[in-house]
Amino acid sequence: MDSSSCSPEYSGNYVYQVKENGGEQFVVNIEQKSCACTKWQLIGIPCIHGMAALLTSNRYPRGRPKKARILQSDEVMIGGKAKLMRNYIVVRCSKCGQRGHNKTTCDKRDRRNVAGSEAGNANGGGPQSVQPRQASTQTQHA
């Protein structure tokens, strides 16, 4: 015997009266997951009467379940995707070391390279920087 041999009728408050072809009737409560035949309560799996009621109520999932998850408290939906909120995260730029932006949005030059070239000129090595040229032109005008 299968659930197609049962005809459920909705009685209200998630309660169905399920009639078998043989004439027997069973009361099924799909919210409490119980049936008058007590198989649903004993086994934990819906009996044929419970399945008939579930299929009629549209509470039985059909097909593949949708891919949805519960967001954490620190997540928000942006563009259909779950993203972490950045309320408590302090972003620091790896180029200039300042807070509030990252290296992609940094509008300053790479200070490490500028500092490195100036340090190289102070030791007498590396390419000539802008400062010595300005100093030499100032001495020519004076």
Automatic annotation (TrEMBL):
Composition bias (Polar residues) maps to: 128-142
Task: Extract the signal peptide range.
Answer: none
Q: Where does the SWIM-type domain start and stop, copy by copy?
A: 26-58
One Pfam family named in its UniProt record: SWIM
Keyword Metal-binding found: yes
Coiled-coil features, chain-numbered ranges: none
Instruction: Tell me the GO molecular function terms.
Output: nucleic acid binding; zinc ion binding
Q: Which domain of life is it from?
A: Eukaryota
Query: Where do the record's region annotations for Disordered lie?
Result: 98-142
InterPro entries, A to Z: Znf_CCHC, Znf_PMZ, Znf_SWIM
Which key words are in the record?
Answer: Metal-binding, Zinc, Zinc-finger
Stretches with biased composition (Basic and acidic residues): 104-113
Start and end residues of each CCHC-type domain = 92-108
Question: Which SMART domains does the entry mention?
Answer: ZnF_PMZ
Name the chain's protein: SWIM-type domain-containing protein
Source species, please?
Dipteronia sinensis
